Give the backbone structure.
Amino acid sequence: MARVPPFLLTLALVLAAGAAAAQTPSYDPITFELVKSSGIDFVTNSSRTAHRHQPETMVAGAAFLDYDNDGLLDVYLVNGAEMTSFDKTKPVYWNRLYHNLGNWKFEDVTEKAGVKGRDYDQGVAVADYDNDGFPDLLVLGVRENVLYRNKGDGTFEDVTERAGLKKPDPDYGTLWSVAAAFFDYDNDGKLDLFISNYCVWDPKTEPLCGPKGMNDYCHPNNYKGLPNSLFHNNGDGTFTDVSVKSGIRKVVGKGMGIGLADFDDDGYLDLFVANDTEPNYLFHNKGDGTFEEIGFVAGVAYPEAGRALSGMGADAKDVDDDGKIDIFHTALSSETMPLFKNQGKNTFMELTARAGVSSLSLSRAGWANAIVDFNNDGRKDLFVAGGDVMDPTGEFREKVRQTNLVMANLGGFKFTDATPQAGPDFSTRRATHRGAAFGDLDNDGRVDALVTALDEGVELWRNTSPTPNRWLTVRTIGTKSNRDGIGARLVATTASGVRHSHVNTAVGYGGASDVRVHFGLGKDETVTKLEVRWPSGIVQVLENLPTNQALEVREPAQ
């Protein structure tokens, strides 16, 4: 073999290093620290049985809410029950509420607050449905849902029956619910309720699946789907079921995560629903109290391959800040996790592969997810709670426990895997992750995360991203609009550009996140203009706002 001259070898190494550097995407680091000894000692209990009943693999719900209005986000977590008696009396099955004491310490106030739950629960939704200034809880379960009204004194009351939400379904009796979104679909100032329902399930008739002697969870094809539900808020503490009248009940699927947004910018909130092994739905709000399902026509029912995926979590945000709200949803391994770019006029284009997300997600399974600017560089990143659907002790155990995934936004609708550099715990911690909630738990301007895992403790991730980028957090207070301002569109203009967001708590898979809107702003020290378009139609403009602050914006009279 001929010897390469030293100068040529040196030149080759320099060129190779340059090429590698050119290929290595640059982004401000995203890092997380696992918070230990926080006081959140919750363990999700699926009550896994030898039969492997389907609900056991789907317990997820996590929520961030400031239930006592002290300025700190508290944590609510849902749990399973004894399978198949659904007995929830043992403390190991209770849902839990943790009060944020500050400095990353939490206190369990479940019994005092009266929110232990009473079903084999799956998800949770949060909003101030009665406009009294205190966030309320809706817990989603396999057999029933429970509405907890916040009394404002540190306690909640079960108002499910009084609110009209306990009536049996006329066709199915009970509906297995996974996720929900509070939103004002008719812009009357009162938050209505959409519920994503999964499938018809009866433990007495459920088949056995998996290899002989090693049962595992059945494919969704073994179950019939369910229609979703829509309830109109009457303004007196009660709701009316308008599922049929509105057109929501016309289609049957296997509903999971919900993406809530005004996708066509017509002033009315629409709904994206990720379906499990069924085409996704996009319910277009026609503005007259009815919805039309347009998922196929809009281009979000299927990915480019034309095959329905195992849709799990969903989030809707303006990924590229072009003024049009995009969709990101999770799925299982070998399916990829679609990223749909909004083209306007109720049309979307899947850019999963071109965005780099296909290669990053193909070998992974994801549940809860979010579109969040974690490093405050002004570009929204992607987060996925990782874990496969199958039994972590079964035949497929090698692939079930996975790490979470964070993908950094490089701009131009391109993403890269930031997980390996996101911290030693974050990059290596494997579990059967399911639910997640996102919000600034310590009010330092960086969005933190909490992730649940089946039959393990929750993971509380403190955002420690080191680059000192600027930020702005906005809490909207509606007067003519609903008090939370859910559905309000916010546009922040700075020297470096324009950034878009909207108010929504329904994020991911059966979860609820911080009601406050968070903007990462890079190096910009001033928001020259903040425009708030309220659901009422009122447009409010604030100017020359210093960044690195939490701002409360109250809707003006006109």
Confidence is low (pLDDT under 50) at residues 1-22. Helices lie at 6-23, 110-113, 243-246, 295-298, 357-361, 397-400, 424-428. The radius of gyration is 23 Å. The first strand starts at residue 32 and ends at 34.
